[in-house]
């Protein structure tokens, strides 16, 4: 059955429908669907155990994020299908996120995610512990005889160094995938979408991911941290943050290495691996210089 056939067969539509693919998804296939009364976003994707993605967890997080006023409403769900209310908005770019006026709007939204979603989350909740994910990815790469095997011992040793340096840890409910495209601007407010990796984590992982995914300069990182925590940046917080930023980049690198082997989505994962590995190396060198 084609994706279009699956969407037609959902039985929730009023009259005939129009289906348009939405580009950009690298763990789901996304479609804009219009019927006689409304427009919706349909996300097609099953569990991806190798990436620790549970669609039941994504559904629960989506419900909680909507209840917290952060994300669009869930209209329908069934195995492998999530239908969300469509928001007329544009996805942000890294350039947008880096703009001081936009970053000033992004930080309260990230803080609301960390503080508010757990109050609305129902049922079993996941923990997204980046260092466990890194170790598990490394084991899967070994099992798959990945061409990146020679790199793994040094990368895992660095991950262990980062885990020691990043503590002690505060715990909050994290989004854990703060790419620019997961922020939507409707002209009045921002929304945060795509809860594939949601789970309890340290806030520093999201902040490190926000900075690394969007290539913040040093001044923007300091501004982000001081705004989020509402206090001057200390040496201790700077050290722990730098470690989690490196861990975020390492996880993204290994995620892409795994995706080169297992993903069926048309995306240049090899180039993405090379890009993130280079960014991790630069961040880790800066981390070591500042220790």
TrEMBL record:
Gene3D superfamilies for the chain: 3.90.1200.10, Phosphorylase Kinase, domain 1 (3.30.200.20)
Keywords from the named record: Kinase, Transferase
InterPro entries: Kinase-like_dom_sf (IPR011009)
Molecular function GO terms recorded: kinase activity
Name this protein carries in UniProt: Choline kinase
Organism of derivation: Rhizobium hidalgonense
Upper taxonomic lineage: Bacteria, Pseudomonadati, Pseudomonadota, Alphaproteobacteria, Hyphomicrobiales
